[in-house]
Write a structure and sequence with these properties.
Blueprint (H helix, E strand, L loop, with lengths): L7 E6 L3 H12 L4 E7 L2 H10 L4 E5 L7 H7 L5 E6 L13 E6 L4 H21 E2 L5 E6 L2 E6 L3 E7 L2 E6 L3 E5 L2 H7 L5 E5 L2 E4 L3 E4 L3 E4 L2 E4 L11
Parallel strand pairs: 1-2, 1-3, 3-4, 4-5
Antiparallel strand pairs: 6-7, 7-8, 9-10, 9-13, 10-11, 12-13, 14-15, 15-16
Length: 232
C-alpha cells in the first residue's frame, strides 16, 4: 500500500520562527497537505506563488515591510487563505478578501483542524461543482445531477454565505459554492463582479450609477473595491 497521496499544496507566510514551526508541525500531520515552502515576507511569498501551484496559504498579517492584507490585495489569483494573527481587530478588514478562516495565536491544534476542514470543504465543493462546457452554457453539479444553465439567460448571481443564487429568465437556481468559484468560470466580457456578493450580466444592465446598477428591475449595490471595474 502506498501512503495517501498529498493533494493540496500549501505555503506558510510567517516571520516568527516558532509560530512557523508550530504550523509546519500541524501541516505535517495531515497527509492531504503538502508544504511546498515557508517564508517570512511578502516578496518571498510572491516568488513561491509564482513557482508553485498553491492551494492554501497560511498568512500572518504582521509581516515585515508589506503587511498581509496589502500583499493579498495585490495578488491576481490568490490561493485559499487562512489568516494567522495575534490581534482580533483584523477580521473585519479581511471580510471583503474571502478569507477562509482566522486563527488566533497561539494556535491550538483542534482550531487548526477546523480551519483546514473549512478549506477542504471549499476545495471539494469547487472540484465537484463546476464543469465548464461550451462558452454559451455551463453545467453545475447539484448532488448527483448536472444542471445546465444558459449564460444568456442569467440576469445576475448573488452570494448568500456559502450558497449562490443564479437569477435567470426562467427561475432562480441555488447552489452550495463560493461566488468566487463561479466567477472564475464566467467569460469576463459577459459578466462582471460589482460587489463581494454580486456578479451581473453586462448585457442585462438597465440603469447604472457609481453606487447602484439595476438589472431586471433589481437595484444592486456596487462595492467599494469594485468601483473602478464597474465604470465599464
Amino acid at each position: 500500500m502506498h501512503p495517501a497521496s498529498k493533494k493540496y499544496n500549501c505555503i506558510i507566510v510567517e516571520d516568527e520562527p516558532i509560530a512557523a514551526e508550530i504550523l509546519e508541525n500541524f501541516v505535517s500531520r495531515d497527509e492531504e497537505l503538502n508544504l511546498v515552502g515557508k517564508c517570512a515576507d511578502a516578496v518571498y511569498a510572491s516568488n513561491l506563488l509564482s513557482i508553485h501551484e498553491v492551494d492554501l496559504m497560511f498568512l500572518d498579517l504582521h509581516l515585515p515591510v508589506v503587511k498581509g492584507f496589502d500583499f493579498l490585495r495585490k495578488l491576481k489569483n490568490p490561493p485559499v487563505v487562512i489568516v494567522t494573527t495575534a490581534y482580533h481587530q483584523y477580521a473585519v478588514e479581511g471580510y471583503e478578501l474571502d478569507i477562509a478562516d482566522y486563527l488566533m495565536k497561539p494556535i491550538p491544534y483542534d482550531r487548526f483542524l477546523t480551519a483546514v476542514e473549512k478549506f477542504k470543504h471549499l476545495m471539494q465543493a469547487e472540484d465537484a461543482l463546476l464543469e465548464l462546457a461550451e462558452r454559451d452554457y455551463i453545467f453545475i453539479s447539484s448532488g448527483k445531477k448536472q444542471i445546465k444553465i444558459i449564460l444568456q439567460d442569467i440576469f445576475y448571481i448573488e452570494s448568500l454565505r456559502e450558497y449562490i443564487n443564479i437569477h435567470t429568465k426562467a427561475e432562480t437556481f441555488t447552489f452550495k459554492m463560493p461566488i468566487s468559484k463561479i466567477e472564475e468560470s464566467l467569460n469576463p466580457k459577459m459578466f462582471l463582479r460589482i460587489h463581494k456578493s454580486y456578479i451581473i450580466s453586462l448585457s442585462k444592465v438597465e440603469v447604472k450609477s457609481a453606487n447602484v446598477i439595476q438589472v431586471n428591475g433589481k437595484k444592486l449595490p456596487v462595492g467599494r473595491t469594485y468601483k473602478p471595474l464597474a465604470g465599464f
